[in-house]
């Protein structure tokens, strides 16, 4: 497979992640401009826009995955990039909240192509290379997560609409790049008829659950995602309350975590899986994550927490290894559908985790709390990680499981 095609896939995933972070620094100012309101009301609108984005990803990830199983990865990815570029232009010129809402609906749908990108990597990967290549996708997403807010913050100096124009330009350039370098990986042998009953989240979940052992593994993925999303959900609040970190210091710590995650998933994962295998990597990785979450929950020194941050990122080997295990349970013509289901599970985490984790933070930090424990959300995340490990351990003991 040409390296340029893989580069296009990784750029697409990175742009998905960058597109979210790129506009975050300017959303408060833009909403205040459009609505003529204060920061409190702007925050409410911001929450609504974020929720809509996540809901659209949840609803449409299986649809795009199934469409890519029927019509191919190439048309789904290219059409989504074209719509994404249009979406950013729409938000750049938006003068009403209704246009911003429409923009976030379109943005959530087009960002659901993460599943199609993962399906492309599954198509071109041997069984032994799947975890490594899924790791590259996760690394690209992590790089976008780091670069997005940084670039968005710099562009914000030019005005609140500048990041949207930049995102539109990047999406358009990547569309042109993909048009010339991206081959089709779905063949007549692996092409699957499109079925609306399987192209929605509930139908796709139901069908994937029929595959041997996949129900338990999807449960593991769900608990892992909810647990792991404690970092973006409460990190800023936790470090501010516990160590009085400034916004700059919080940004540095998030960048450290993002870079360490990208290094882990892009480079270290091949050594780790080469030594332990995919299944043992998931087994020990879940335990490792539980231990680091426990340590973060009780740490009392800010510099110690900063030192723990890249160590916590080593636990990021779990997601691509688990994806590879599940991919091995699905047929070649079901890879898009499976990745769509996993993207929907991830979207559920994006909806549920911020609410649950911030409520836990409030419960243990508000006035009148019996115990002041800002790290309580990380302890809850540790318990969820232990649940994921228990479910995974039970799945390993199930009869008929395949081995590394």
Describe this structure in words.
This protein folds into two domains: 1-176, Growth Hormone, Chain: A, CATH 1.20.1250.20; 200-398, MFS general substrate transporter like domains (Growth Hormone, Chain: A). The chain is globular. Helix 4 (73-93) packs antiparallel against helix 5 (97-110). Helices cover 79% and strands 0% of the residues. It contains 17 helices and no strands. The chain is mainly alpha-helical.
Write a short abstract of this structure.
With 404 residues, this protein is mainly alpha-helical. The protein is built from 17 helices and no strands.
Labels describing this entry:
Growth Hormone, Chain: A; mainly alpha; 404 residues; 2 domains; single chain; globular
| CATH T-level fold name of the largest domain | Growth Hormone, Chain: A
Give the ordered list of helices and strands.
HHHHHHHHHHHHHHHHH
Morphology: globular
Gap from first CA to last CA: 25 Å
Count up the helices.
Answer: 17
Fourth-level CATH superfamily of the largest domain: MFS general substrate transporter like domains
Share in β-strands: under 5%
Number of strands: 0
């Amino acid at each position: 497979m040409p390296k340029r095609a893989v580069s296009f896939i990784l750029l697409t995933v990175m742009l998905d992640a960058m597109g979210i972070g790129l506009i975050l620094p300017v959303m408060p100012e833009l909403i205040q401009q459009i609505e003529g309101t204060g920061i409190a009301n702007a925050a409410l609108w911001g929450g609504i826009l974020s929720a809509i984005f996540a809901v659209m990803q949840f609803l449409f990830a299986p649809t795009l995955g199934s469409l890519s199983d029927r019509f191919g990865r190439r048309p789904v990815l290219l059409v989504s990039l074209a719509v994404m570029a249009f979406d950013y232009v729409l938000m750049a010129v938006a003068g009403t909240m209704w246009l911003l809402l429409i923009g976030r609906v379109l943005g959530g749908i087009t960002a659901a192509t993460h599943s199609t990108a993962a399906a492309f990597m599954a198509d071109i990967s041997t069984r032994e290379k799947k975890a490594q290549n899924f790791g590259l996708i996760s690394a690209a997403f992590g790089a976008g997560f780091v670069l997005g807010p940084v670039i968005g913050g710099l562009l914000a100096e030019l005005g609140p609409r500048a990041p949207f124009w930049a995102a539109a330009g990047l999406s358009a350039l990547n569309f042109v790049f993909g048009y010339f370098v991206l081959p089709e990986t779905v063949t007549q042998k692996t092409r699957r008829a499109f079925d609306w009953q399987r192209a929605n989240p509930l139908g796709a979940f139901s069908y994937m659950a029929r595959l041997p052992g996949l129900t338990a593994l999807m449960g593991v993925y769900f608990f892992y995602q909810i647990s792991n999303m404690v970092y973006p959900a409460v990190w800023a609040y936790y470090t501010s309350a516990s160590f009085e970190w400034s916004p700059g210091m919080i940004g540095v710590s998030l960048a450290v975590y993002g870079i360490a995650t990208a290094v882990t998933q892009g480079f270290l994962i091949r050594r780790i899986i080469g030594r332990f295998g995919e299944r043992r990597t998931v087994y020990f990785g879940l335990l490792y994550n539980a231990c680091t979450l426990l340590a973060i929950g009780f740490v009392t020194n800010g510099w110690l927490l900063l030192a723990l941050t890249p160590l916590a990122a080593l636990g990021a080997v779990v997601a691509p290894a688990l994806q590879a295990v599940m991919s091995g349970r699905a047929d070649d013509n079901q890879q898009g559908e499976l990745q769509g289901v996993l993207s929907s599970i991830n979207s559920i985490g994006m909806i549920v985790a911020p609410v649950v984790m911030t409520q836990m933070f409030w419960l243990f930090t508000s006035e009148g709390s019996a115990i002041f424990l800002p790290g309580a959300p990380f302890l809850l995340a540790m318990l969820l990680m232990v649940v994921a490990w228990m479910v995974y351990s039970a799945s390993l003991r199930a009869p008929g499981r395949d081995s590394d």
